Amino acid sequence: MRHGETVFNTQGRYQGQLDSPLTDLGVDQVRQMARLLRHSVGHPSDWKVISSPLGRAQQSTQILCELIGYDFAKVETDARLSEVSVGSWSGLTLKEIEQGWPNSLEDTTMYDWYFRSPDGESYEAVQERVTDWLDSLSSTPRVIAVTHGLTSRILRGVYAGLSREEALALEVSQSTCFQLANCTIKRISNEFDEF
To answer: pTM higher than 0.85 for the full model?
Structure first.
């Protein structure tokens, strides 16, 4: 699942690995996802919760844990689930990026411009770290992961064997969860969907 809406999200600012707190709507979104998971996953003691160490993911994870009855002290953090770093573009709007780095977004799409940051992460670097994270789970089959929009797209794409273009075009949502099982991705969007 992705963290809930943040203040930067409402301002059109790209957080990368910066942070801003959840909005009231963001808190409600996490509560909605927690209800979906509580209904779908069964007893939380059968699962491991792993979160990005970034503040917005940690805040979301704490809310999730309270609502599904999981001990927040048992949550593992893993930097491989952190959002894609956009380097010096962190905290900026698209307009501010275009003003500060003229022509840097030429020939990009709404899905790949992030990787043009002069000091940010490459797609390949993120793909490598999420692949490493997925490989590390071989003996841990039941995981709830709390991550970020772009990282989630790439992670799901790696899991399902999608091309870069297919992965970057995947849905990103702050009000639903995705189940990854048997090399497929299933959107969990209402209380009647089952894992």
So the answer is: yes
